[in-house]
Amino acid sequence: MKRSGGKKVLLACTVALAAAVVGFMSPLVRKAAAEETKYPTRDDVDYVYIQEPKTDSENGIITEDEWAEYFPEIVESYRANADNSFTIDYLKEDTYLSNIYEGYGFAIDYESARGHEYCLEDVQSVARPHPLSNCLTCKSADFTAMVMMMGEDAYSLDFEETASKLVTNVGCFNCHGNAAGNGGQLMLTHDYQIENLWDLTDEIPAATLACGQCHIEYYFKPENKATNSPYSSIEGMSPDAILAYYDEMGFADWTQESTGAALLKAQHPEFETFMGEGSNHALLGLTCADCHMATETADDGTVYISHTLVSPLTSDSILQKCATCHGDTDMADKVHTLQAAVTARETEVGTALSDFKDQLAEAVASGDYTEEELDEIRYVYRAAQWYFDFDYVENSEGAHNSTLANYCLDKAEELIAEGVGMFQ
């Protein structure tokens, strides 16, 4: 595991693997006299310095209840993520998806995610099959600690047996470890990102890297089913580079029965999209936290970073920051217009991809093509599906990086046309 001087922090708990400190984000300030500002900024945030509390938890993780004594506003705001309980059934909304995902779990059940407070509940209730515990990777702080103690063997444990032992959802530990958060300290706690991105901790802001432990494209290693990310550089995060990575290792998430195509299922590449070419916000040095975690003032004058994760369009505090560059632009109108255009293209390209899939299935069934001819078409379908999916499953609908969203849809469209043209 890669290390460099001064960045190793031993967790004050029973886990065996130390998490890596990746930087700072202001969490909380108590001021004797806060400035008269309607919407405080991060410049108004100082720090509370404490010694991390002792914990009674069996695995050594300091719980939210134990942190609440010292960071009450932050813990309360994090628990407010339970208000995010709305879901969208994508299979009903975009009916072509069931055909594209034929033979894979997402053709059975595919809904939008709820708030972090529902992670464990939702992963256990989803209808998609999940035999191994690797599906718990970003669902519980307890599981993160389990991987630290057991190493990659934890990923291949039985799902049901492992899930029954977990208590916490994603929480304080996933982003802060067991450190007290002094100075807004953040940590890498997920082994695959420590291994793959350690050399990038000086290039990627900590408040983006922490979110990028879970809001990523990932795969399960064929040899032991351990969770892994398919890159170790910013350049390697592009959909082109990731497809090349999977092609080189001969990886596929599933082989579709009707087409015989070895297909990839993109996950939720918000990290890769935000950091990707065309992302103006990343170029400006903004982070995930800047746009999704507002600066708030408590009744007693405490200025703190809210841990309620929101759309920037719903927060006056965050919109104030947007105005720094966008002036008096109606941001809601601007973003919704952009998203509507991307969504319309997704429907168009997704429908065309579904039709291409049907043509390929018919060609396979016809017996009129050699396996060599079919394999050429199958690869074009694989690539087209990958580019479409990379855009579709990225949850911002183009808001994070409309340039990359449209690039992916352009590539999918071009490949679909190429593939259809290969039929006799």
Walk me through the structure:
The chain is mostly helical and 424 residues long. The protein has helices at 64-68, 72-79, 90-93, 96-100, 119-125, 141-150, 159-163, 172-176, 191-197, 206-209, 239-249, 270-275, 280-283, 288-292, 316-326, 331-366, 371-392, 402-420, and strands at residues 8-9, 19-24, 28-29, 185-188, 219-220, 227-228, 254-255, 262-263, 295-297, 303-305. Mean pLDDT is 90; it is low at 1-18 and 23-37. It is globular, with a radius of gyration of 22 Å. The protein is 41% helix and 7% strand. The protein starts with 7 loop residues before the first strand and ends with a helix. The strands form 4 sheets. A 3-stranded antiparallel β-sheet has the order 1-2-4. It has a 3-stranded antiparallel β-sheet with strand order 3-10-9, with no helix packed on it. The chain is built from 18 helices and 10 strands.
As a percent range, the share of strand residues is: 5-15%
How would you spell out the order of helices and strands? EEEHHHHHHHHEHHEEHEEHHHEEHHHH
- Rg calc: 22 Å
Separation of the first and last Cα atoms: 52 Å
Tally of alpha and pi helices: 18
Low-confidence segments: 1-18, 23-37
Number of strands: 10
Share in helix? 40-55%
User: Strand order across the biggest sheet?
Assistant: 1-2-4
Q: Biggest β-sheet, characterized? A: 3 strands, antiparallel
Structural class comes to mainly alpha
Mean pLDDT: 90
* Overall geometry: globular
